[in-house]
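Justification of resources, computational component.

The compute hours requested in this renewal are based largely on the per-chain cost of generating structure records like the one below. Each record pairs the submitted sequence with a full structure-token output. That output is archived, and it is also reused by downstream analysis tasks.
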Amino acid sequence: MLLAIWMQVQYLIMKPIYRFLPIFFVVLAYFTNVTVTKGQSPFEVRASVGYTFNPNDFSLGQEETSKIYGMVGQGGAIVNIPVYRQYGIQTGLLGELTYARGEVGISRFNTRTIKFYAPLLITRPVSKQTALMAGMAMKNNKKMKLFHIAGSYNFRYDFVVQLEHRMNRQWSLLATFNHNIILPSAYFVNDPQTSFLLGVSYQLFSASDQPEMPAQKTLKMKR
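The structure output for this chain reads:
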């Protein structure tokens, strides 16, 4: 009962925040000229693929589940916002596609789910080229047509740890860990509890992509 109340409170609080948070950060980045800082852009597009599984088997009604695992892929847009000194915030909106399979009792199953994935991570560099990120990610736990304000478990909140290694000005390598400890086990049948993903990120509108200003061209001609 208490868990259901807590999940409903989370839903009421987080739904309006996550609805407008990506837009807020994009507008903030534009009007504070973040794109000019160090010649870098806060906008990225990324894609990742990985392995998803349940660490432990569990009961589903009168049946036991086993060997639930699958593949997961993500893709979408990210915005990075500097906050204080070396710390920043990363958020965005991605799509997530999960193929899972497993056994319930003596039956085998295969599922495919498509969800929205919205991370909210605190970032901090650990070296000149590598950054560590940690926080939460929210995604719809039910199909949109099944959403109801009085319902429970409309959203899923995963704990996220991510490592990003920058290869050059535009390209980065990503390693992401997701784990959920809040939901009842029944929701881990078609979307397993834990996942590891590897991927790449491409920084948009970097300094190398931007056209030269007239003053820059004039300076080069004089040289």
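The chain has one domain: 2-222. The helical segments are 2-31, 214-222.
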